[in-house]
Every structure is written in C-alpha cells, then in structure tokens.
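Final report, closing paragraph on structural work. Over the funding period we assembled a curated collection of sequence-structure pairs, and we close with a single example.
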Amino acid sequence: MSLARTQGFAAHLPLARLIGGLGAGQIVGWGTSFYLPTILAGDISRDTGISEEVVYGGVTVMLLVSASLAPWLGRRLDRGGARTIMTLGSIIMGLALILVGISSGLTTYLLAWVVMGIASSMLLTNSAFVAVAQLAGTGARRAMTILMLFTGVASSVAWPVMSYLDGAFGWRITCFVLGSLHFAMGAPFHCWLLRTKLAPSPGTIPARPVPEGISPSLQKLAFLILIPCMCLSGFISWGLSVHIVDLLRYLGAQRAEAISLASLLGVLQVSSRLIDLAMGSRHTPLLTGIVAAVLLSASFAIPLTGIAGGSPAVFMIVYGVAIGSMSLARVMIPLALFGSRSYGRATGVLAGFQNVAFALAPLAYAAMFERIGLSFALWLSFTAGVLTLIGMTTLFAMRRS
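Its predicted structure, as stored:
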C-alpha cells in the first residue's frame, strides 16, 4: 500500500470509527427499546397478566415521555453535551430494561417504560445525529446518511437475537442480558467515542464555505412550516407501518403475499438511503424531502385512482422508497435550515412534536380501519402527503432565496 493511500486511510479512520460506533449503538438502542415488544409481548402478557395491547402500549409511553424531554435535551446537546447525555442514556436504558425484567404487573411495567422514555430521549436518534453534526464537520451529511443505514437494519439484527435469548432463557433473563449490554458496553463506549472533535479529512473541505442555515429572519417561519411537514409525514409512516399487512390485504393481496410484500419495507427504506448516499452532496436535503413527499402522495394515489391496476406490489415499492427518503429528510433538513450550531435545539423541538404524532399514529390508524374504513385512511394519508409536499416546496424556495 502506498504512503498516500495509507495516509488517506488513516485520515478517514476517525470518522469511520465515529459512524460505526454510533451506528452499532443505535442498533442496540432501538433494538432493545422500540422493537422489544415485537418478540417479547406474548410472553410478558402471559406471565404478568397484562394484555398484549397494553404491553405494546409501553412504546407509546416511551415516545410520549421522550417527546416531553426532547426540547430541553436539544438545548443541552447544542452546548456540546452529547458525550455526557449519551453515556448517561446508556446507563438509564440498562436500568429500564432491568425494570422491565422484574415487572410483575401493570404499574411496574409502565414505570419501566417511563424510564425507557427518559433513556431513549438521551440515547437514540436525535442525540446521535447531533453528535455527528458537532463532531463530523463538513462530512456531517454523508455521515448522517450512513448512520441511517445502521438504524434501518436495527430490527433485522435485534429480532433474531432476542428470539434466541427468549427461547433459550425466557423473557426476563433476555431483558437482564440486554440491560447488562448497555451497562458493560454502551456507556463506556459512548464515553470513549465522543471524547474529541474530528479533524477534517483531506478532500472534505469545500472550496466555498458551507452556509450555516438560512437567514435568522426566516428561521421562525421555516420552523412553523417544518413542524407540520415532519409530523404529517411521520404520522403516516409510523401509523401505517404497524398496519401495513392489513392495508395490503385490503388492496387485494392474499395474506401470504401481503406478509411477503410487507417484509420488503426495510429493504426499500435502506435502498432509498443508499441512493442518497451515492448522490452525495450534489443536492439539498430539501430536494430529498420534495421527492419523498411526491412519492408518498403518489403511493396513495395508486389505489385511490387505480393507477397500475391499484397493484399492492407497486404501492409497496413506492411507499417504501418514500418513507425511507423522508426519514433521511427528517434528519438532514434541520441541519440545512438551521446549521450545526442550532441543530440540537431545532431537532429537540421537532422531536417533541414528532414523537407525539408517532405515538398516536398507530392508535389513530387502528381506529380509522375499524370504525371509518380503509378508504378514508387512504384519502387522509394522500392529503397529508400533498400538504407535506406544499410545505417542502415552500421551504426549498426559502432556502434558495
């Protein structure tokens, strides 16, 4: 290996270590919290006497608690506190899992998810991306896209591991093992990983300075437009993804086909992120948001208008790519609009609103499916997609002005 190539590899190693470390932490964090009931809900219900609906309701509690803390934590993150916050978040997440493992009834179980909500607000997506924005410098956008690839496979990694542990040792021991993972690895690793800011790698410094967000005079208006855009798109993706099999069956798929198509959702989301990664920084994140909103609206137009015969497969492909692209836009647009110095505060406030929408969406869609009808849910989703598109287009015009 030549000296130049060796130096180039050494220069990029710290950024790769940051992304890989945070990515592994996000897989463990999401896998042991949001995705926990998917594998353990039945056993928890049978052992404690809590209904499965309430067991899954722990995730709603987690998201609502996280939403209440997000704005406050965002301001702390802007002051450079990602290292302390994420390290402490790992410790609290470990404690929350221990509390789930010793739960004997409704009170102790829900208390565990309240603690889980505190931990998730400190450890999961928002804190990790703020850390990247602060530490990765001009490589932040590319680093965020790669980090999203890790979060996209969290369930694929976590579910088999939890299923094995549950089958071999039971759900309580599984929670204790997962909690110990945060104590023994998560906390010390985050403390070490986030200790210093990275020096820019060769070739990452642009010829012209990258603007730190839009004009301060426009930021308040931009925020008022961005909040409903992110909440509407998130309401669709978080609400429908839970009920996607039922929706595909309504569109004409048999049960086996619906399950097979639904299983493509993670692959489609990751594929959209790989496309964005390949395109690099040649386009603004707001353009990603516009394309995502167009695809989101189009996915619901397919069954509503009979385009492509209202095919469930075509709907699934367009919908999966759309929500994968929108999840990227949700992370990167605040950086483009408000800059790295205010990224924590901006995403903290956004997370406060978004997490409420995320928490309520599955319940709202379930109510619509059962009491009003799937057709109404499709029209509502299409309308939300169009409103998101209008907002994204407006923000794009503001960014260029």
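Residues 1-12, 199-210 have pLDDT under 50 and may be disordered. The radius of gyration is 21 Å. We thank the funder for supporting this effort.
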